[in-house]
UniProtKB/TrEMBL annotation:
Protein name: Glutamate dehydrogenase
One Pfam family, short name: ELFV_dehydrog
A molecular function GO annotation: nucleotide binding
Matching InterPro entries: Aminoacid_DH-like_N_sf, Glu/Leu/Phe/Val/Trp_DH, Glu/Leu/Phe/Val/Trp_DH_C, Glu/Leu/Phe/Val/Trp_DH_dimer, Glu/Leu/Phe/Val_DH_AS, Glu_DH, NAD(P)-bd_dom_sf, NAD_bind_Glu_DH
Chain residues that bind NAD(+): T185, N216
Catalytic activity, reaction form: L-glutamate + NAD(+) + H2O = 2-oxoglutarate + NH4(+) + NADH + H(+); L-glutamate + NADP(+) + H2O = 2-oxoglutarate + NH4(+) + NADPH + H(+)
Glutamate/phenylalanine/leucine/valine/L-tryptophan dehydrogenase C-terminal domain span: 178-408
Site feature location: Important for catalysis: D142
Family: Belongs to the Glu/Leu/Phe/Val dehydrogenases family.
Binding positions for substrate per the UniProt entry: K66, K90, S344
Cited SUPFAM superfamilies: Aminoacid dehydrogenase-like, N-terminal domain (SSF53223), NAD(P)-binding Rossmann-fold domains (SSF51735)
Alphabetical list of PANTHER family matching this protein: GLUTAMATE DEHYDROGENASE (PTHR11606), NAD-SPECIFIC GLUTAMATE DEHYDROGENASE (PTHR11606:SF24)
Amino acid sequence: MNALAATNRNFRHAARILGLDSKLEKSLMIPFREIKVECTIPKDDGTLVSYVGFRVQHDNARGPMKGGIRYHPEVDHDEVNALAQLMTWKTAVADIPYGGAKGGIGCTPRDLSKSELERLTRVFTQKIHDLIGIHTDVPAPDMGTNAQTMAWMLDEYSKFHGHSPAVVTGKPIDLGGSLGRDAATGRGVVFATEALLAEHGQSIKDLKFVIQGFGNVGSWAAKLIHERGGKIVAVSDITGAIKNSNGIDIPSLLAHKEETGTLKSFGGGDVMDPEELLVYDCDVIIPCALGGVLNKDNAAEVKAKFIIEAANHPTDPEADEILSKKGVVILPDIYANAGGVTVSYFEWVQNIQGFMWDEEKVNHELQKYMTRAFGNIKSMCKTHNCNLRMGAFTLGVNRVARATLLRGWEA
Ligand SMILES: NC(=O)c1ccc[n+]([C@@H]2O[C@H](COP(=O)([O-])OP(=O)(O)OC[C@H]3O[C@@H](n4cnc5c(N)ncnc54)[C@H](O)[C@@H]3O)[C@@H](O)[C@H]2O)c1
């Protein structure tokens, strides 16, 4: 099922549980604005190439729209729409004063040089600068983008609007980025995992983990789980997958990846078929890469008891049903990976106030937000007798619906 159909299905299910008015339901699903731009740049060899860029602004009832910018070949209209909608529910679940948006460019960043990536980012920013802003829509990094991408966006935006550090988050520290933002999504995933496991009388140090994706989110989650004594038995990225049933030495793997750019040649584990990763023997799977990776083709074979959705929409609705019947507990994306947007919010607050926090305060506040949101989700699960995904969706949708009604939406 495509990402948008899956997201709409979850939203409609939550709207039904909440007994939402059908007109309001329809209105909340329709995005506020969809932007599509052609970004034409000269390549280093002098030839011209054009890429399609998107920014979908889904909803702003609770505050400025907020969401990442993704550079990936599979970026398309439906995917960006789905991710923008998920951001609306995610910021509401985290209870931060934002709406939802998402953007992206359909490209393969690994095939572009640094100067080509810079030109592409600047052209994209030139085309959307009038439609984003500190109190309108605040981009951040996502798959295929990073702090450097945000630095270029900030610089290009500031040429039109004056120095505006709060217009993007996930910036380098030297340009007003927040301490702790780089690790925030992975750290939030670990706080969320701890909250869930505590409910089940378990703890990270006693369990075996599988992590798909070893970029920003996956590598931070792996590092922090390793520090807490959890055993990571398999890891993959775009270059391949490795396994070690005794536990992978994560600091060594990070150093190896830094040095060689690949996981495959790592001596501290055996190469495995990436297809096997999600059905490998473990207690917890943490998908940290693409959407739709748990689907009807592999769900029945999953051995894990817990799935922590660090990636966005990694579980197809068909897989959701199969896994639920097997008793697998799924911690949904709109909560599990909300640590990134939460610390983005802290970064924006610090930029607006012109007063920067130390890292201890950032991490402490993040833990407070993640723990509080878990409690709020569990209350919704109890009230509506539903699973964690619907607990999170009903929490987020209800908050956005309340804000929409208070503002008045039919006039
Ligand atoms: N960065 C954030 O703050 C943030 C916040 C919330 C959610 N997310 C979500 O987390 C996921 C990862 O984001 P990121 O920022 O870590 O991206 P990233 O670009 O830093 O890393 C992505 C990782 O996925 C790997 N990957 C790509 N295709 C793969 C495949 N077919 N099989 C296995 N691995 C593959 C890449 O090699 C890389 O290791 C995305 O779904 C993103 O939307 C990120």
